[in-house]
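Can anyone check this?
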Amino acid sequence: MQEYRPNPGKEYVKVRADFGLDGSIRPLKFRPENGPTVVVDQILDVRQAPALKAGGQGTRYTCRAGERIFYLFHDRSLWFVEKD
């Protein structure tokens, strides 16, 4: 299991996801430690990509929640969003 290391550019989140029989992962919703739940309405793109603002590399999910579009990253066993 990956060790959690604080990073000022990352906000680690708890994620509910659907795991496909083909090994795919589809995040359904997430919640920051002290924040409201965000429901993912649509996954627009999935690819390996760097977190340019926060550093690191992982699977980047381009997500839409309402009118907001954002990146949700899965890096081994941890999930995070980049802080603004």
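Reply from J.R.: I decoded it. The first strand starts at residue 10 and ends at 19.
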